[in-house]
Records
---
Amino acid sequence: MATAIPKISLSSSRDIPFNRLVLSQSNVRRVKSGLSIEELARDIERRGLLQSLNVRPVVDDAGVETGTYEVPAGGRRFRALELLVKQKKLAKTAPVPCVVREAGSAILAEDDSLAENVQRVALHPLDQFRAFRDMLEKGISEEEIAAAFFVALRWSRPFGQFCGLDKLYP
């Protein structure tokens, strides 16, 4: 007799006011690298938040949810939103898209934070070249691309030419 394969259930998602969010001490990222918080804030200001925060309800000593949520995964995004609030570009009660893990989940907050950082795969340079090329063809200037993606102007256009990719992959 065949046994049923257990189905997974995904965490719910919802908008939570920014002032109900706090950065979790379970966030595993401690060393700053890559884009600065200021650059990420400028990017969020330009295009909006592209990826939800991963949150968990904060509970009191009796195990009752307090209405506040900690952010163990998405700390850089949280800090960028916090900067936008300080700059008065985002209301402190603005709704923030969040994936909500249940309080008392068997999955540790550190597990979520680590997985979010380890599971990501950087874009291949050829794919980046093609995306820049497509944006150029659709009327975005080299300067706009370089500014939007925090790359030197020389990388927004000539990268493919420098490597000969424009001839291999027209």
---
Amino acid sequence: MIRRAGPGREAAARAPRGEGDPAYWNLGIAATVQRDWATARDAWVGFGIRLPDGEGGITGRFGHACVRLDTGGEREVVWVERLCPTRGRVVNVPVTGGRRYGEVVVHDGAPNGERIVDGTTFPVFDELLLLQESELPTLEVTVAAGERADLEALVGLFTEHGYGVEPASSLRMLCACCSEGTHEQQRSVEAGAQRLALAAPPEEARRLLERRAAEAAIGRSWSGLEPVG
């Protein structure tokens, strides 16, 4: 049963359980925003969603999706790893609005657009609020990669250490109207000199860049490592 009063409690109390009634979904979002995890868990189960066992915040595997961040009127669609039906951890490096890799956002339940990658369709949700900030700063650096595989290896190295990297060649900017449609998307990297957005402590970023430059031909060249914002 629902253990705490909150927005939508009365509506959910009158709704049938396990049948996808939106009253439970609305309550789940409201309880998540309040970090009332007991009520949130009960609401998602009432909606008909199976959750991982446990108490407190939900950390499950709900797949990947996209979220349209909105900070001070700047909008950017980013990829998230869904932790629960309404929370996602940002898994690429945002480049607008001072947002950060690794932050946790609460998103709406109704998709507002789609992204298609390798034939798989992913929903795009609108952000409701930033729930948990990330401590990883955003940096920029210029890297000269002789081969595409060299840059892919650099991306993999940062990922292995829990950090983010976003090559400029993988970005595609869309206007706000177009962003809400359905779009084919490829996350690819290209050879040559280009700017990278990094999410890592500066000293760690420098160490990994130097390590990769010593291991393989990324042109043995990187420069201009600096914070963003």
---
Amino acid sequence: MEAGLEALAEGGPDAVRVETLAAKLGVSKGGFYGYFDGRAALLTEMLDEWERRYTTEVIARVDAEGGDAADRIRRAGRLTFSEDPHPIDLAVRAWARTDESVARRLRRVDNERLDFLRRMFGALITDPDEVEARSVLMFTLAIGRHFIAADLHGRTQREAVQLAAEHLLRPQP
């Protein structure tokens, strides 16, 4: 599973090849099929793993560990969009542009993530329009930070993104 997710992050779904993964893992192609009923099953299980690891488990962990809503948002962001899982997330997003079943799953995952943000911002802010705006902006910041190529006035990308996130987490005026 790990090798498949790495291949997906590095080269998209076309890079997830049974022969390549089997060779990388030191197993025969036949041995590979002892774990998966073909490439399609592997791809489905990889998406299951991505969803479980970076959405379902993150939200459950953040909720279980508690803290105020702003801390929960920060923790969820670190667990979901750090340097390790972020390339996988971007690869799934690119894949969803060409595969409707992946697009449906991505919509479901994005809705779950946005619902989490709405719930958290709703604990901080009473205005429903402000809750929606901050939720969408925070989510967009988490996903889109990878695409920023602009100069950030002496800040690193990480510093600028953190500054923007902290701005969104400020209490309602």
---
Amino acid sequence: MQVSGAVRGRVLSVASECVPLIKTGGLADVVGALPAALAAVGWEMRVLLPAYRALRGYLDAMDEVLADPDLFGGPARVMAGQIAGLSVLLLDAPHLYDRDGGPYAGPAGDWPDNAQRFAALSWIAARLAREGVQGWQPDVLHAHDWQAGLAPAYLRYGGTASVASVMTIHNMAFQGWAPAHLLAALRLPPDQYHPAALEYYGGLSSLKAGLVTAGAVTTVSPNYARELVRPEFGLGLEGVIAARAASVFGVLNGIDTEVWSPEREVMPYSAKKMQAKAAHRAALCAEFGLQVPGPLAILVSRLTDQKGIDLLESVVPDFVAAGGGLAVLGSGDPALQAALLALAQRFAGRVSVKIGYDEDLSHRMFAGGDAVLVPSRFEPCGLTQIYGLAYGTVPVVSAVGGLADTVIDASPAAISAKVATGIVFHPVDALAFGQALRRLIALYADKKLFARVQKNAMAQEVGWAASAARYADIYQGLVE
């Protein structure tokens, strides 16, 4: 696609989170990165988000562009403005979003009215797509994950054909299920409650609603798009994906290379000048209280079975015995947290665990680690391994989703061709993971070869340029 200074089209992006305003996971990174990436290929994007309590401080500096006296139980308004370089629309509906806690849950667990909260976001998105915003009229409505899944449905069932729609799956595991009796309360047409449309195993799924009504469906890596027709990845929606196969596209995520770059760290380094990485490693070992003769592996992750964290208990002892070490940053399942802390106690000086998340610390870990472990059972795209590539922190990954799309295994053929960027294992079990860690030990022992794999990794294109061009092509095809 040719780049020009002219605006080729306009996109209304609707999501539940967006960096740097609100984040619980990789969805926020993608939503926050797309506007600038798309601007480079001529597509202007505005982002619609809920005005959570944490974002209400921005409202006074914004302009009201739409009012609704009764949005799923209370008055609401849409405020427009520039925040952190983004063109943002905040849906100010205090009865839905002005609460303590996170976007989806409070101290007692998931908000019981999440179906209504995110239906409201989708309803307003469809209305803005139809009516425009102060003369700004989108050509495409781009909905992200289940929280925005009803937006394409409201657009379709509202009889509007002039605005195209795209539904992006960031993680099929979260489907926005709701009981069928909410059909009318969610302002959905009763005649569409059947298996080919809204009905989903006796209930409703906002994600399914988006998948069956959007003009195109995307997901965040080509391999994940292929996997979704299999029951173990489609999780009940594989039939919908198969039926829409001609309109399903895998578009690999990128990372913000202005934020994630070894050349922007306190002690900068690059593929041509790697000396500072050793200093980062020493500093990281000191920070975690580690002394590691072999490869220092890092793990920065949500601590869940999906991420394969339960496998560590089986593989870490042999890895440590062979000279390896492990620094962990993450939080999640209390049982997995306890298991990792027990490993750290058992292998003090070689394994160290910090529970929680710290963006600055994660940068120091990627800068100082020799390898990053991503043993996920499924991974739509994954950003962790891409950060590893950018920092020359060799990824050790399972062969699923975007992990398989982004990491080239250090097989004999790839080493001979000088293209290997990491270690890929399959199946996702302790035996294969343990074998991968033994390969890491051997690779690290060959200093010349390990340095070559690091440089190969750092030579990969990990930014948003190619992905933005692909999204632009999809938008263009829908509009035409």
